[in-house]
Amino acid sequence: MIDPARSFDRAADAYERTRPDYPDALLELVPVPADATVLDLGAGTGKLTRVLARRYRQVIAVEPLDGMRAILEAVVPGVESRAGSAEAIPLADASVDAVFAAQAFHWFANDEAVAELARVLRPGGVLALVWNDRDEGRPDPLPADYRAYLAELREIAEFDRRPAWQDVLRAAPFGELERASVPHDHVLDRDGLLDNARSVSWIARRDESEQSSILARLGELLPEGTYAIPNRANVLWTCRV
Fold first, then answer.
1. Which of 27, 212, 215, 216 is the most buried (most CB within 10 A)?
2. 56, 66, 110, 59: which is closest to 88 by C-alpha?
Protein backbone atom coordinates (compact mmCIF):
# COMPACT_ATOMS: atom_id res chain seq x y z
CA MET A 1 0.00 0.00 0.00
CA ILE A 2 1.11 3.56 -0.67
CA ASP A 3 0.91 6.54 1.67
CA PRO A 4 -2.80 7.45 2.09
CA ALA A 5 -2.26 11.16 1.54
CA ARG A 6 -0.50 10.52 -1.78
CA SER A 7 -3.01 7.96 -3.01
CA PHE A 8 -5.22 10.67 -4.50
CA ASP A 9 -2.79 11.23 -7.37
CA ARG A 10 -3.52 7.66 -8.50
CA ALA A 11 -7.22 8.47 -8.82
CA ALA A 12 -7.15 12.20 -9.64
CA ASP A 13 -9.39 11.86 -12.71
CA ALA A 14 -11.97 9.83 -10.81
CA TYR A 15 -11.79 12.33 -7.96
CA GLU A 16 -12.56 15.22 -10.30
CA ARG A 17 -15.39 13.41 -12.09
CA THR A 18 -17.19 11.94 -9.12
CA ARG A 19 -16.49 13.79 -5.89
CA PRO A 20 -19.33 16.09 -4.81
CA ASP A 21 -19.20 19.82 -5.43
CA TYR A 22 -19.96 22.55 -2.91
CA PRO A 23 -23.02 24.83 -3.17
CA ASP A 24 -22.34 28.55 -3.57
CA ALA A 25 -24.75 29.19 -0.72
CA LEU A 26 -22.24 27.73 1.73
CA LEU A 27 -19.96 30.75 1.33
CA GLU A 28 -22.80 33.09 2.26
CA LEU A 29 -22.57 31.65 5.78
CA VAL A 30 -18.91 32.62 6.28
CA PRO A 31 -17.97 36.22 7.25
CA VAL A 32 -15.52 36.85 4.39
CA PRO A 33 -16.17 39.88 2.12
CA ALA A 34 -16.23 39.55 -1.66
CA ASP A 35 -13.14 41.77 -2.08
CA ALA A 36 -11.01 39.39 0.01
CA THR A 37 -7.84 37.55 -0.92
CA VAL A 38 -8.36 33.90 0.04
CA LEU A 39 -6.26 30.75 0.10
CA ASP A 40 -7.60 27.31 -0.80
CA LEU A 41 -5.22 24.99 1.04
CA GLY A 42 -5.00 21.35 -0.03
CA ALA A 43 -7.08 22.40 -3.02
CA GLY A 44 -7.02 19.03 -4.81
CA THR A 45 -8.61 19.25 -8.26
CA GLY A 46 -10.29 22.55 -7.37
CA LYS A 47 -13.69 21.35 -6.20
CA LEU A 48 -13.95 24.30 -3.80
CA THR A 49 -11.53 26.54 -5.71
CA ARG A 50 -14.02 27.12 -8.52
CA VAL A 51 -16.70 28.13 -6.02
CA LEU A 52 -14.32 30.53 -4.27
CA ALA A 53 -13.33 32.04 -7.63
CA ARG A 54 -16.95 32.93 -8.36
CA ARG A 55 -17.19 34.92 -5.13
CA TYR A 56 -13.86 36.42 -4.07
CA ARG A 57 -11.57 38.99 -5.66
CA GLN A 58 -8.39 36.90 -5.51
CA VAL A 59 -8.02 33.16 -4.93
CA ILE A 60 -4.72 31.33 -4.45
CA ALA A 61 -4.78 27.53 -4.56
CA VAL A 62 -2.04 25.47 -2.87
CA GLU A 63 -1.88 21.72 -3.55
CA PRO A 64 1.08 19.35 -2.95
CA LEU A 65 0.17 16.61 -5.45
CA ASP A 66 1.17 17.27 -9.06
CA GLY A 67 -1.62 15.23 -10.64
CA MET A 68 -4.36 16.89 -8.62
CA ARG A 69 -2.90 20.35 -9.20
CA ALA A 70 -2.68 19.79 -12.97
CA ILE A 71 -6.41 19.16 -13.11
CA LEU A 72 -7.10 22.22 -10.96
CA GLU A 73 -5.09 24.40 -13.32
CA ALA A 74 -7.06 23.06 -16.28
CA VAL A 75 -10.54 23.49 -14.80
CA VAL A 76 -9.94 26.80 -12.95
CA PRO A 77 -7.40 28.51 -15.23
CA GLY A 78 -7.88 32.01 -13.81
CA VAL A 79 -6.75 31.07 -10.32
CA GLU A 80 -3.15 31.34 -9.13
CA SER A 81 -1.91 27.83 -8.34
CA ARG A 82 1.15 26.91 -6.30
CA ALA A 83 2.83 23.75 -5.11
CA GLY A 84 3.09 23.61 -1.33
CA SER A 85 1.92 21.98 1.85
CA ALA A 86 0.08 23.03 5.00
CA GLU A 87 3.31 22.78 6.96
CA ALA A 88 5.13 25.05 4.49
CA ILE A 89 2.63 27.43 2.88
CA PRO A 90 4.33 29.37 0.05
CA LEU A 91 2.89 32.75 1.06
CA ALA A 92 4.10 35.74 3.05
CA ASP A 93 3.10 36.53 6.61
CA ALA A 94 -0.37 38.10 7.03
CA SER A 95 -1.02 37.93 3.27
CA VAL A 96 -4.59 36.54 3.07
CA ASP A 97 -7.96 37.44 4.53
CA ALA A 98 -9.17 33.83 4.74
CA VAL A 99 -7.91 30.27 4.45
CA PHE A 100 -10.28 27.55 3.26
CA ALA A 101 -9.49 23.84 3.55
CA ALA A 102 -12.03 21.59 1.82
CA GLN A 103 -12.11 17.90 2.70
CA ALA A 104 -8.45 18.31 3.64
CA PHE A 105 -7.87 19.46 7.22
CA HIS A 106 -7.75 15.92 8.58
CA TRP A 107 -4.54 15.38 6.57
CA PHE A 108 -2.74 18.22 8.34
CA ALA A 109 -4.45 18.70 11.70
CA ASN A 110 -1.23 19.28 13.61
CA ASP A 111 0.47 22.09 15.50
CA GLU A 112 2.95 22.86 12.72
CA ALA A 113 0.23 23.34 10.10
CA VAL A 114 -1.99 25.37 12.42
CA ALA A 115 0.95 27.68 13.16
CA GLU A 116 1.36 28.18 9.40
CA LEU A 117 -2.34 28.93 9.01
CA ALA A 118 -2.07 31.59 11.72
CA ARG A 119 1.08 33.00 10.09
CA VAL A 120 -0.44 33.66 6.65
CA LEU A 121 -3.75 34.99 7.97
CA ARG A 122 -4.18 38.68 8.68
CA PRO A 123 -5.47 39.60 12.17
CA GLY A 124 -9.22 39.02 12.14
CA GLY A 125 -8.91 36.71 9.14
CA VAL A 126 -11.07 33.61 8.84
CA LEU A 127 -10.06 29.95 8.84
CA ALA A 128 -12.87 27.89 7.27
CA LEU A 129 -12.86 24.09 7.21
CA VAL A 130 -15.25 22.68 4.61
CA TRP A 131 -16.42 19.13 3.98
CA ASN A 132 -19.29 17.08 2.58
CA ASP A 133 -20.99 14.23 4.39
CA ARG A 134 -24.21 12.27 4.13
CA ASP A 135 -27.42 13.94 5.23
CA GLU A 136 -28.65 11.44 7.80
CA GLY A 137 -32.03 13.16 7.97
CA ARG A 138 -33.00 12.04 4.46
CA PRO A 139 -33.32 8.53 2.99
CA ASP A 140 -30.22 7.11 1.30
CA PRO A 141 -31.01 5.51 -2.10
CA LEU A 142 -27.92 3.28 -2.09
CA PRO A 143 -28.51 -0.42 -1.32
CA ALA A 144 -27.94 -1.33 2.32
CA ASP A 145 -25.44 -4.09 1.44
CA TYR A 146 -23.40 -1.67 -0.66
CA ARG A 147 -23.26 0.87 2.15
CA ALA A 148 -22.39 -1.85 4.68
CA TYR A 149 -19.46 -3.11 2.59
CA LEU A 150 -18.07 0.42 2.18
CA ALA A 151 -18.37 0.95 5.93
CA GLU A 152 -16.54 -2.31 6.56
CA LEU A 153 -13.69 -1.29 4.24
CA ARG A 154 -13.32 2.03 5.98
CA GLU A 155 -13.42 0.50 9.45
CA ILE A 156 -10.58 -1.91 8.73
CA ALA A 157 -8.34 0.76 7.18
CA GLU A 158 -4.98 0.93 8.92
CA PHE A 159 -5.16 4.63 9.68
CA ASP A 160 -7.57 7.03 11.32
CA ARG A 161 -7.28 10.60 10.11
CA ARG A 162 -10.28 12.08 11.91
CA PRO A 163 -8.93 15.05 13.86
CA ALA A 164 -10.16 16.52 17.10
CA TRP A 165 -10.47 19.89 15.38
CA GLN A 166 -11.33 21.79 18.52
CA ASP A 167 -8.33 20.34 20.36
CA VAL A 168 -5.93 21.20 17.52
CA LEU A 169 -7.19 24.77 17.21
CA ARG A 170 -7.63 25.47 20.92
CA ALA A 171 -3.92 26.09 21.48
CA ALA A 172 -3.63 28.42 18.46
CA PRO A 173 -4.49 32.12 18.13
CA PHE A 174 -8.08 31.57 17.00
CA GLY A 175 -11.42 32.53 18.51
CA GLU A 176 -14.67 30.64 18.98
CA LEU A 177 -15.70 27.99 16.47
CA GLU A 178 -18.88 28.46 14.45
CA ARG A 179 -20.54 25.80 12.31
CA ALA A 180 -23.22 25.73 9.62
CA SER A 181 -24.31 23.48 6.76
CA VAL A 182 -26.29 23.49 3.52
CA PRO A 183 -28.18 20.46 2.14
CA HIS A 184 -27.58 19.42 -1.45
CA ASP A 185 -27.66 16.26 -3.58
CA HIS A 186 -24.77 14.41 -5.17
CA VAL A 187 -26.09 12.72 -8.31
CA LEU A 188 -24.13 9.84 -9.87
CA ASP A 189 -24.90 6.85 -12.04
CA ARG A 190 -23.59 3.36 -11.25
CA ASP A 191 -20.26 3.84 -13.03
CA GLY A 192 -19.79 7.19 -11.31
CA LEU A 193 -20.39 5.67 -7.90
CA LEU A 194 -17.82 2.96 -8.51
CA ASP A 195 -15.30 5.56 -9.67
CA ASN A 196 -16.12 7.59 -6.59
CA ALA A 197 -15.35 4.60 -4.40
CA ARG A 198 -12.05 4.14 -6.25
CA SER A 199 -11.10 7.74 -5.42
CA VAL A 200 -11.30 7.42 -1.62
CA SER A 201 -7.90 7.08 0.02
CA TRP A 202 -8.67 3.84 1.85
CA ILE A 203 -9.33 2.14 -1.50
CA ALA A 204 -6.99 4.15 -3.76
CA ARG A 205 -3.99 3.29 -1.60
CA ARG A 206 -4.36 -0.46 -2.20
CA ASP A 207 -2.56 -2.31 -4.98
CA GLU A 208 -4.34 -2.75 -8.32
CA SER A 209 -5.39 -6.36 -7.85
CA GLU A 210 -6.94 -5.62 -4.46
CA GLN A 211 -8.69 -2.54 -5.85
CA SER A 212 -10.11 -4.61 -8.70
CA SER A 213 -11.46 -7.21 -6.28
CA ILE A 214 -13.08 -4.54 -4.09
CA LEU A 215 -14.65 -2.74 -7.04
CA ALA A 216 -15.95 -5.99 -8.49
CA ARG A 217 -17.67 -6.76 -5.19
CA LEU A 218 -19.10 -3.26 -4.98
CA GLY A 219 -20.36 -3.63 -8.55
CA GLU A 220 -22.19 -6.82 -7.61
CA LEU A 221 -23.99 -4.93 -4.85
CA LEU A 222 -25.00 -1.91 -6.95
CA PRO A 223 -27.77 -2.12 -9.58
CA GLU A 224 -27.75 0.07 -12.68
CA GLY A 225 -29.41 3.42 -12.17
CA THR A 226 -28.94 7.05 -11.22
CA TYR A 227 -28.67 7.86 -7.53
CA ALA A 228 -29.33 11.23 -5.88
CA ILE A 229 -27.35 10.90 -2.66
CA PRO A 230 -28.46 13.33 0.08
CA ASN A 231 -25.46 15.35 1.25
CA ARG A 232 -24.74 18.22 3.58
CA ALA A 233 -21.97 20.70 2.80
CA ASN A 234 -20.52 21.75 6.14
CA VAL A 235 -18.35 24.68 7.19
CA LEU A 236 -16.58 25.15 10.51
CA TRP A 237 -14.95 28.56 10.87
CA THR A 238 -13.02 30.66 13.34
CA CYS A 239 -11.25 34.04 13.28
CA ARG A 240 -7.60 34.73 13.92
CA VAL A 241 -7.14 36.91 17.02
1. 27
2. 110
